[in-house]
Amino acid sequence: MILSKNKKLLILLLCINIFLTISCNCKTIENSQSNKFRVILDTDANNELDDQHAIAYMLFNSDIFDVEGITVNRTNNGGKVENHYDEADRVVKLCGMDKKIPIFTGADKNYEEIKDKVNNDKFDGSDAVNFIIERAHANDKRKLILIPVGKLTNISLAIKKDPTIIPKIRIVWLGSNYPDPGEYNFVNDIPSINPLLELNVDFEMVMVRYHKESGTDAVKAYLKDIRKIMPGKGPHISENVIGRHGGSFDNFGDYSVSLFKNFREENSSRPLFDMAAVAIVKNPEWADRVEIPAPKFEDDKWIDQPENQRKIIIWENFDKESIMADFYNIMENYNLPE
């Protein structure tokens, strides 16, 4: 059959229109993805109860975060590193993301004990370290944001093994009471912070500062609010999960209530330190961002180095009302990836 010129022109225009539509759709998807933050959360998930809420908050903000995975480590509380893995896995399942978010076992011991073994095929923490390196080198123009909410061991080991990841990552660490000494995450592996203070890597410290309004200690969840707001929140899964303290759960909200009840019944509130670190990545307006010359830590104290050309960021003075309001809103109106 011979087509007329008009029909040929019509078919050509139709093909061009289809091509342009597909191209625009692909461009929209690409732009949408590029506006999200690529993140890996590094957690001692079985330590207390703020890690679990940080994981849920991160997963439920899928319109903000591209969660590439979760890595775990062991700190002094919470048992073996396998316990931390199991708790992270438990929360991921309760958030309806079973088998969709990879979890990798990281360091059981500390930086000084592992650093000279990172070129071995297998070493303590190698699964997590290799995953961090792999994702840092992914073909993506966005930097990979690492959010460690425990000790820094996995992060420093990754840099030790492959320093070429330095320009490709941003580290936002929930840790330290700077300028005061102490703090749980910090003291669990003090040597692991040295490479991050000395090397030219994007390094940010989200202040803890126990019992001070300027730290994440001020970002508190109240037991009465947890009991009132959290029951039933989040997607309901088909196969129940056994909780850390026993019990059977099919949603994260009920598990949150259990965690609070089993932490310290007599306490009326509990800071959600780790969740606040995720929150200020989502919205930097929820805290003050301060650039300082990188200090050093010697003889159990911070030493400022005002002439140091190496700069780091500290986050302080958190908008606790806005952060907690957003947390409860996301628990009610969660976004999961399609």
Report the average pLDDT across residues.
92
Q: Supply the number of helical segments.
A: 12
For the largest beta-sheet, the strand count, sense and barrel status come to: 8 strands, mixed
**In percent, how much strand structure appears in the residues?**
15-25%
Summarize the structure.
The chain is an alpha/beta fold and 338 residues long. The protein contains 12 helices and 14 strands.
Please render the helix and strand layout as text:
Elements: H1 5-34, E1 37-43, H2 50-60, E2 65-72, H3 81-94, E3 103-105, H4 111-114, H5 126-136, E4 144-148, H6 153-161, E5 169-174, H7 184-187, H8 194-198, E6 202-206, E7 220-222, H9 223-229, E8 241-242, E9 248-249, H10 252-263, E10 269-271, H11 273-282, E11 288-293, E12 296-298, E13 301-303, E14 311-316, H12 320-332
Parallel strand pairs: 1-2, 1-4, 2-3, 4-5, 5-6, 6-14
Antiparallel strand pairs: 7-10, 8-9, 11-14, 12-13
Plain-language structure description:
With 338 residues, the chain is α/β, with parallel strands linked by helices. The chain has helices at 5-34, 50-60, 81-94, 111-114, 126-136, 153-161, 184-187, 194-198, 223-229, 252-263, 273-282, 320-332; strands at 37-43, 65-72, 103-105, 144-148, 169-174, 202-206, 220-222, 241-242, 248-249, 269-271, 288-293, 296-298, 301-303, 311-316. The strands form 4 sheets. Strands 3-2-1-4-5-6-14-11 form an 8-stranded mixed beta sheet, with helices on both faces. The chain has a two-stranded antiparallel ribbon with strand order 7-10. Strand 8 (241-242) and strand 9 form a beta hairpin. Helix 2 (50-60) packs across helix 3, helix 5 (126-136) crosses helix 6 (153-161) and helix 9 (223-229) runs antiparallel to helix 10 (252-263). The longest helix is centred in the N-terminal third of the chain and has 30 residues, at 5-34.
